[in-house]
Amino acid sequence: MGGLPPHEIVFRHLARYLGPHTAKTALKTFSERALQKPPEMVTRIDAPRLLQALKPMLRTLIGADECDAVLQQVTRELSL
After folding, report:
1. CA 21, CA 76: separation in Å to the nearest integer?
2. How far apart are CA 34 and CA 36, in angstroms?
3. Nearest to 31, CA basis, from 13, 48, 12
4. CA–CA separation, 28 vs 7, rounded Å?
5. Cα–Cα distance, 68 to 49 (Å, whole number)
6. Measuring CA to CA, which of 11, 36, 45, 50 is 20 to 30 A from 73?
7. Could you give the count of Cα atoms lying within 13 Å of 16 in the half-sphere of its Cβ?
8. Measuring CA to CA, how many Å separate 47 from each of 2, 38, 75?
9. What distance in Å separates the CA atoms of residue 65 and residue 2, rounded to the nearest whole number?
10. Could you tell me the pTM of the whole model?
């Protein structure tokens, strides 16, 4: 796994559901709120906190089952 930085992996999954602009905005907003850093500075160690911060929004927008599936896939890709 490991070729893409964590923020790119998360962005790619969010963009499928939210579109690229909204995905970029959500990633920036939640990264800064949850981690106090821009998405480009998110490490694999930070990723679980970022995913937890994104979870309520995703559950609302795409539903609980789809949200859980997406977050599990991201977690696998990040090898967490």
Report:
1. 24
2. 6
3. 48
4. 9
5. 15
6. 36
7. 12
8. 13, 12, 8
9. 26
10. 0.91
